[in-house]
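User
Here is a favour to ask of a fellow structure person. I am asking you to supply a protein in sequence and structure-token form. Please set it down just below, with no commentary around it:

Assistant
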Amino acid sequence: MDLLSAERISELTGEFDGERSQDGRPRISDDVLERMKRVTTEEAWGVLAGHDYNFQYEGEWINLHPDRVLTGRAVTCRYVPHRPDLNQVVEKVGANEGRIGGQNSWVIDTLVTGDVLVVELFGKIVRGTFIGDNLGTAIASNTGGTGLVVDGSIRDTQRVRELPINVFTKGLHPTGIGEVTMTEINGPIRIGQASVLPGDIVLGTSSGIVFIPPKLAQQVVESSESTRLRDYWGKQSIREGRYTPGEIDRGWTDEMNVEFQSWSKTVDVNELEY
């Protein structure tokens, strides 16, 4: 038994043919991650649904910073309810691999800049508290300030909220973590109604979280940017009195499309103010 296997990660994500991290996960560029921050939940969902990825969204979170957008490359881990014989095996494997501290520390120690930790904890609230402020500080340090998604709970909420990370959790509780065993790092997991693989792009907004397959990340960003350009030009055309709302909302004429294409070459979509 291995808690982490680069070979298995490569097999799980075999449709991705781009750059990979040292642990085998797909590695989407920092540029795409930065551009992803301006993508809406609905824009991302539209692209994924068009490719028949219908189980990539989960809502109804406690979001510690709803004014922030969370993006990053998923590192996954899965927990099951505690079973003594299984836990002994996991602890032995961890010791053989040189892992230190509690099992939740093991996966946090693997995080690097740009990662988002995604934890399947089967909705456990009492004693399902994956982090407090100490481990939250470690996440902030290792990732450069991205965050955590946990289908469970956290503790030390007031102090965690002060950290430079965002946290999406299903609950808050003062107890410490217990009665659970971590069975795998960077395997496939379930977060509510969503399926998540290591290396998926996490897009967390005030609307919820979309887990984007790496092979579709570029398309999601470019589709969003195209939508924003068209929306901006349409509103600007209405304000300037060149076209009516009815003309903008219906199918554009050839003349309008030519105007839009000419204008779009003169602007940077990421510098437009909405």
